[in-house]
Amino acid sequence: MRDMNNVFHLAIPARDLDEAYTFYVEKLGCKLARRYADRITLDFFGDQVVCHLSQDYDQEPKMYPRHFGVTFRDRTQFDNLYKLAKQREIPFFHDMSLRFEGLIEEHLTFFLIDPSNNLLEFKYYHDERMMY
Fold it and tell me: According to the lineage, what is the superkingdom (predicted)?
């Protein structure tokens, strides 16, 4: 089992680091940890996302199978992020929807898209036991 003192790490392509900085830090509210000529390292909701400068990114992104994000335990935090995304006009790939309605795994979800076509999914399960 993961010790919560440890941090999950994900590396993603970024076509332009200034665009990535604007999206993740200025709009989404992530904390910049480090910046180098070829990458930026971010505190992404308590985990580490590294945006590596690359021209090898999805030209036509699809939700499945490749995306990443956060599953919230707290509905208020989920709602606040959704409101922030709307207020700051962060681009949505797919607006909020309800998945698996009426089933135990019912959850709310929305997808954002960053300037390099990386898809970010944010979820909230009505039954916390379904998070995994």
Answer: Bacteria
Whether 74 is in a domain gets the answer yes
Q: Which domain holds residue 71?
A: 9-131
**Residue 33, C-beta contacts closer than 8 angstroms, at least 6 positions apart:** 41, 42, 43, 48
Angle at 53 between CA 109 and CA 65, to 5 degrees: 35
The domain that holds 98 is classified in CATH as 3.10.180.10
pLDDT in tens, 88-104: 999 999 999 999 999 99
Specify if 3 maps to a domain: no
